[in-house]
Structure prediction request, 485 residues.
Amino acid sequence: MGDYTGFLDRRSQLGGQYGFAPSVLPQGLFPFQSYLVDWSLRKGRSAIFADCGMGKTIQALAWAEQVVRHTNKRVLVLTPLAVGYQFVTEGERFGIACSRSRDGSLNGEKILIANYEQLHRFDPSDFVGIVADESSRMKHFSGATQKYVTRFMTKLPYRLLCTATAAPNDYIELGTSSEALGELGYSDMLSRFFVQNDNKSHRMQQIKDQNMERGAKMLGGEYYAKLAFRIAQTIQQWRLKGHAVDPFWRWVSTWARACRKPSDLGFDDNGFILPALSEQEHLVKEKIPFVKEGTFFADTPFGLHAEREERRRTIEDRCEKVKELSAHKDPVVIWVQYNNEGDLLERLLPDAVQVKGSQSDEEKEERLIAFLKGQSRILITKSKIAGFGLNFQHCAHVVTFATHSWESYYQAVRRCWRFGQMRPVAVDIVLTQGERRIRDNMVRKSEAADAMFGKIIKHMRDFVEIDHVVDTEEERVPEWLSMRR
Prediction:
């Protein structure tokens, strides 16, 4: 029976325990935070997908402190730019010794904090554990960089991934996370639980034909139709096998915990109720509407190229509207997508500071910290630079332009609208009539993401409830396998 149970366990991919039972955790942790830290330490290699403001920083520090106590060796904490400053501040508040290392030096505390960009300066043999804060950033790295981060992590026995709620239908992120933790690799995950959509070639040919026709009619050129087809090719080509939905999420539940509020894990939501959020659209009219040659009416943009042209033409109108919306005395975060938007806004708003890609990491961090400390009233930046990990809860006003990226928009808003925010948060979305399709697409993605994450919580809940009462060291046969015997 023991051999058969082991066989079932291997087939179900319910990985084992690689960790240890923790000692006394910091008293300031909420019950759900203590549970997550305890669970992740016993696992040894795990991921915490918890929403913004749920205390992932202190959970990561408490985890790292326990690993240091257990092994008397170092733990490396990787963070996005300027987030290391918040880690040190949080460590001081909870009495957890940690220090930053900007040049790869090992001087200081045994919990070392560094930016992802500095990882190449470190040797994995100097550490026993690693925390990847805002680990969803890994999927944005180039293939070589992402592989380097993964290889570094897999050389250490203790690993923790922390990020705000992962995009719930983003299987790439789940695959890279699993691989970094030593679970199934991305390709193995796909082959085990997923299947390619049926009639792919036929369906893609239909999409190609439709976009070629629309492109020829609306844009007057085959080039743009081909561009639209390439965009269509990014449509998700994989779907969960019909019989693998429950096994897949049960497998994810063995190495990850996901929650948007404590009650998702069976705890009280007291103290974790978000303030009101108001999202208001501001439609900017072009001073001189664009009329394509040979027509009498304003053209509606179709395709990325046309949308970029629309933004280029309307940059002054849109930025003037942002200036108008920012005309008050409270802090404001302005999220842009192009450098010319940020540069123009920086000229229009004298009390603003811009953080952009051409600056050094040191200058970026200095400017972000100045905004965090209240030394700068307005911050202008891009989501890919400052949209991960930073806590702007001192600010309750977000201004952004329309975007197709659900993750960029979500992360940008959640820098301010997060647990711990004491005021209602206002989000102003500036767009033109030609960008209405972009905004509608974003609303659709947001609704789909909420629905998908609800399904994730539903699939995880039963397993998490079992985890509360069953000894995690005990070997057990999962119910979905028992039913099939």
Notes: The chain has a mean pLDDT of 81.
